[in-house]
Design goal:
The complex is a heterodimer of chains A (130) and B (769). Chain A has 130 residues and is mostly helical. Chain A contains seven helices and no strands. Chain A is rod-shaped. The N and C termini of chain A lie far apart (91 Å). Helices cover 72% and strands 0% of the residues of chain B. Chain B is built from 41 helices and no strands. In chain B, helix 7 packs antiparallel against helix 8. The radius of gyration of chain B is 44 Å and the shape is elongated. The two termini of chain B are 84 Å apart. The chains are: A mainly alpha (130), B mainly alpha (769). At the A-B interface, helix 2, helix 3, helix 4, helix 5 and helix 7 of A face helix 2, helix 4, helix 6, helix 8 and helix 9 of B.
């Protein structure tokens, strides 16, 4: 229901996960979920679970506390689609690896054996006299 | 030294005493071709052939030094226009077009160079190359301008471009390879020959042979050819299964010759590595491979994106197990990257997470800086939720206010409450006309309990802009905090004068007017009260509660029909609580018929839940009390019999309270406890039967018993409740039980019970749940 033990600080309790409700749940839905869980984990039989359930409900039952809880939830960063990135790297695996020959690679190499690969043409300069 | 430097950096202005011809020549001699061109342009080039020639040379040299392709092409074109018969100008124009992949134009320019008699050996090769780039199937035998050597040299290129690598490998006597070997170098290991052969072997799947042919040559190839060789040599290594060696060669080639092609190939290889790790959920491995890749390929956005995803996942995992230190490191990396390149994604969620992580690590000052950074990136005006990129339950203005309070709170916890103020003061000093910033300062001052300074700052804003709506509203809030209702009202009216639809100002003024209405009502000034409520209603026409107050005032003025109409409107706009309130009004006025009608309507509208009946029962019992009504209005006439008490009991029966309905039992106890502790006690006993070991239920029972004088039993139950709370480690509850025990011991309990005091804490049925 809750997170694993801490390493360098207390974990953030996710009360929504503990109560099994959506973050957009109404107060009534939160309450219903809470009582259902309390029935399943009464304090006399399951004090630890009850403690967690109550702590989660404590965070959500009061509008001010719930707002605080909501405001301090770790935000989801909208990740780029890894599938798209990885798929685009493998659109044509053989070509990506160079097993078939890309004409642009041939042209690039061929140009390198000609004057197209040169940069110094000072020999082509002429003196001027006005 | 400085003079010499100056000379080099800044060309001297042309001397007006000297002719443009000489000025141009001087500029030309110091390689300032632009000035030379400008000076010579003043002359009549038709009558000055030497200058015309010099000008063409200046354009030519400027072109060869140019980095910009368009500039280069424009200058070379101008050179050819000035001296059309100069072959070298056409040759270089051809090269420039060729490099820009403008093959048709390159071919035309090469042809003109040839026509002009340009005899550079390289012309045949580049023209032939352009021809096969234009059409790989061109019959090179028919191109009489192509030298036999170049024809041979281009044969494998054309074959590879035609997709016929086998032609390259054809080893029958007289083939291009042997002929070239004999004619050109006499050396079988000619690097270009080997390259074409290696590419052909690769393309025909002869990997082992390709590996040999594409091995690094003794004589290095030029960069463009070397990157192709390395790319396909590594590809051959990968095809033999040696992925590590392939990756190393691609990486090395991408570092030495950072062409887009080799960089993309290397990046893709790393992405494939990252993919396997990501699919196995090994985010640390994903991060390691992308970071290694990014050292060699810093500009690859796909790698950067994957690195960020790895950081994000690792940060999330760390945060979930409470390892905030590690989470902070990952989120900090993300912040730096997202700050540098906003295209990679929004930074606000990460700033928010960093602030939380620093708070959890009790690094309050850093947390304050994180919140402050987040605040600076939030929109200043109400906007779409998506624009903040945060999934938070507050709209922008309230979100900004919340974050601002957090900044101050963190600075306070860091023992630096002044820091936030200083932060805003400095910013406001630097931008005195930024009134939004000054508003932030005012908010910070108010939030730091520096009310007077905050008020002064708001007044300064209003001096600069008397129509600043937010400043008026904030000033109104300051006045309200100090119960200066009249001053608050003036500010809100000023705000609404500028922006009549400003919702917070409308709500604020409506609240002030409602408060005034209550005071007037309680003093018996019903007409004035009605006026106040009516004005408030104009501001918040959908406020069902206001309609109930107005109706109740009209009821007090014996305008029953008008009141009924108000209540009808209220019930169409409100919820179950509105029905309860309207019922309460009729009950307070002893009108059983109307009250019952409200019950019927609530039942017909489907809002009559067990809680509703309990609340209505509370209203019934309330109407029998001498105290004020739940709305805060003075009690009205009484029926003098037990009609309402009977109706209350009927309502409790309708709530259909079985022993199992713990929730409703608690609700009854909280509603009836202060009014009818004897009745509430019955339900507390039911609750105990349902949850015998619940310390809260025992506490309820004990307090109710205390209220009706059963002190001994009450104390026993409270002792049991305390014992259970202690066992559960619920110290908060334990403290409440102790307080209840003290109240039970108080000889004034009877009086307090009449006033409902002990149950103030119990009014919230869920206080301990």
């Amino acid at each position: 229901l809750v997170t694993t033990p801490t390493v360098s600080g207390p974990p953030l309790l996710n009360p929504y996960a503990v109560l099994g409700v959506d973050p957009a749940a109404t107060p009534d839905e939160v309450k219903t979920a809470y009582f259902a869980l309390v029935r399943a984990h009464p304090p006399e039989r399951d004090p630890e679970a009850f403690k967690r359930i109550r702590a989660a409900y404590e965070q959500l039952r009061d509008p001010e506390k719930r707002l605080e809880t909501d405001m301090l939830r770790v935000q989801v960063w909208p990740e780029p689609s890894l599938k798209e990135i990885f798929d685009s790297a493998e659109i044509d695996p053989s070509r990506a690896q160079g097993a078939s020959i890309d004409p642009a690679d041939v042209i690039r190499a061929a140009r390198a054996m000609s004057d197209l690969g040169r940069h110094d043409f000072r020999e082509d300069y002429r003196e001027v006299n006005v | 030294v400085s003079k010499r430097k100056h000379k080099h950096r800044f060309s001297p202005p042309p001397n007006p005493a000297v002719t443009p011809k000489q000025n141009g020549l001087k500029a030309f001699s110091r390689n300032d071709f632009s000035t030379a061109i400008e000076q010579w342009s003043r002359l009549d080039l038709e009558t000055e052939p030497a200058v015309r020639s010099a000008m063409a040379e200046a354009h030519f040299r400027r072109a060869l030094a140019a980095r910009d392709v368009e500039q280069c092409l424009a200058d070379l074109t101008r050179s050819t226009e000035l001296i059309p018969g100069e072959g070298r100008f056409w040759y270089h124009l051809g090269l420039a077009h060729h490099r820009a992949d403008q093959i048709d134009e390159a071919l035309a320019a090469y042809a003109r160079a040839s026509e002009a008699g340009f005899s550079r050996k390289g012309l045949s090769l580049v023209r032939g190359l352009a021809a096969i780039e234009h059409a790989p199937d061109v019959d090179m035998e028919t191109q009489d301008w192509l030298s036999p050597t170049d024809r041979l040299a281009l044969f494998p290129v054309a074959a590879l471009l035609r997709g016929k690598p086998q032609d390259v490998l054809d080893s029958k006597p007289g083939n291009w390879f042997d002929r070239l070997k004999a004619q050109v170098t006499g050396n079988a290991a000619d690097p270009f020959s080997l390259l074409w052969r290696g590419l052909a072997l690769s393309a025909t799947g002869q990997v082992a042979e390709a590996l040999t042919a594409l091995a690094p040559p003794g004589q290095p190839l030029k960069a463009g050819a070397e990157s192709t060789r390395a790319l396909y040599h590594a590809a051959a290594l990968a095809a033999t299964g040696d992925q590590a060696a392939a990756l190393a060669e691609w990486t090395s080639a991408a570092t030495r010759m950072p062409t887009p092609r080799i960089q993309a190939v290397a990046a893709n290889a790393y992405l494939r590595l990252a993919r396997s790790a990501a699919e196995a959920g090994q985010w640390q491995a994903v991060l390691a491979s992308t970071q290694t890749a990014l050292k060699a390929l810093p500009g690859q956005p796909a790698l950067r994106a994957v690195e960020l995803v790895a950081h994000n996942r690792l940060a999330g995992e760390s945060a979930e197990r409470g390892d905030w230190k590690t989470a902070i490191l990952h989120w900090q990396h993300m912040c730096t990257a997202l700050d540098e390149d906003p295209q990679l994604g929004p930074i606000t969620p990460i700033l928010h997470n960093l602030a939380i992580a620093h708070e959890r690590s009790e690094q309050w000052e850093v947390a304050a800086e994180d919140w402050s950074a987040l605040l600076s990136r939030l929109p200043k005006r109400p906007t779409k939720k998506s624009q903040t990129n945060l999934h938070l339950p507050l709209p922008v203005p309230e979100l900004r206010a919340w974050v601002r309070r957090r900044v101050l709170d963190c600075y306070k916890r860091a023992g630096r409450p002044d820091q936030a103020i200083t932060h805003y003061r400095n910013a406001a000093k630097a931008n005195p006309d930024d009134l939004d910033l000054r508003l932030e300062l005012a908010d910070a001052l108010v939030a730091n309990d520096q009310i007077v300074a905050g008020r002064n700052e708001l007044q300064r804003i209003l001096q600069k802009d008397p129509r600043h709506v937010d400043a008026h509203v904030r000033l109104a809030e300051v006045h309200l905090e100090r119960s200066e209702l009249y001053a608050a009202e003036q500010e809100l009216r000023a705000a609404l004068e500028t922006d009549p639809k400003h919702a917070p100002a409308q709500r604020g003024l409506a609240e002030i007017l409602s408060e005034r209405g209550h005071d007037q009502f309680n003093a018996g000034f019903y007409s004035q009260a009605k006026k106040s409520y009516q004005e408030a209603l104009q501001l918040t026409p959908d406020d069902a509660q206001l309609l109930v107050w107005l109706g109740n005032t009209e009821l007090a003025m014996t305008k029953v029909a008008a009141a009924r109409e108000r209540f009808d409107t209220a019930m169409t706009k409100g919820d179950l609580h509105t029905y309860v309130a309207v019922f309460g009004c009729w009950a307070q006025h002893g009108n059983l018929t109307e009250a019952r009608q409200i019950l019927d309507r609530a039942e017909a509208a489907g809002v009559a839940s067990p809680h509703f009946y309990v609340d209505v029962a509370g209203e019934c019992f309330q109407s029998t009390q001498r105290s004020m009504s739940p709305l805060g209005f003075p009690g009205a006439k009484r029926t003098g019999d037990d009609t309402w008490e009977r109706l209350g009991r009927e309502m409790l029966q309708k709530a259909d309270v079985g022993d199992d309905n713990v929730d409703t039992l608690r609700h009854i106890i909280s509603i009836l406890g202060p009014l009818q502790p004897d009745i509430a006690l019955e339900y507390a006993q039911k609750l105990i039967r349902r949850t015998p070991n619940d310390p809260v239920a025992l506490m309820y029972l004990g307090v109710l018993q205390g209220m009706i004088g059963q002190r001994r039993t009450a104390k026993d139950n409270l002792r049991k409740a305390a014992s259970l709370a202690r066992k559960q480690g619920n110290h908060e509850l334990l403290e409440e039980i102790e307080q209840a025990r003290e109240v039970i011991d108080n000889p004034l309990l009877g009086m307090m019970s009449q006033m409902g005091i002990p149950f103030d804490e119990l009014d919230d049925e869920e206080l301990y749940w």
